Amino acid sequence: MEKIKKGLKSDTNISVLLVVFIVVTLVLGFMLQGKFFSINNFQSMAFQISEFGFLAIAMSLAMLTGGIDLSIVANAGLSGIVAAFVMSGKFFDIETMNNVVVIIIAVFSALACSTLCGLFNGVLIAKLSIPPILATLGTMIFYTGLGMALTNGESVRVGVKGFSRLSSMTLGDVPYIFILLVVTFIIISFILSKTKFGREVYMVGQNPITLKFSGGDPEKILIKTYTLVGFLVGISALIIISRVNSARMGFGDTYQLQAILVAVLGGIDPDGGKGKILGVALGITVIQFLQSAFTIFQFTPYAKKLIWGALLLMVMILNYFINNKKVIKSLKKVKAN
Amino acid sequence: MKLRKLKQMEKYLISILIAYIIIVSVVSKNFLSVNTLFDLLKTSSGTLILAAGVLMVLISGGIDVSFTAIAVVSGYSSILLMMKLGVDNIFFALIVAAIIGLLLGIINALIIYFFKLSTFITTLGTSSVFYGFMTTFIGTSSISVADKPQSLFNFGKATLFGLPLFFIMAVVILVITWFILYRTTLGRSIFAIGNSEESALRAGINILKTKLFVYSYMGLLSGIMGIVYFSEIDLINPISLVGTELMVIAAVVIGGIRLTGGEGTILGAILGVSIIQIFRSTLVFLGLSTSWNDLFIGIILLVSVSLISYQERKSNKEHLIFSK
Question: Which CATH number does the domain housing residue B44 bear?
Answer without folding.
Answer: 1.10.3470
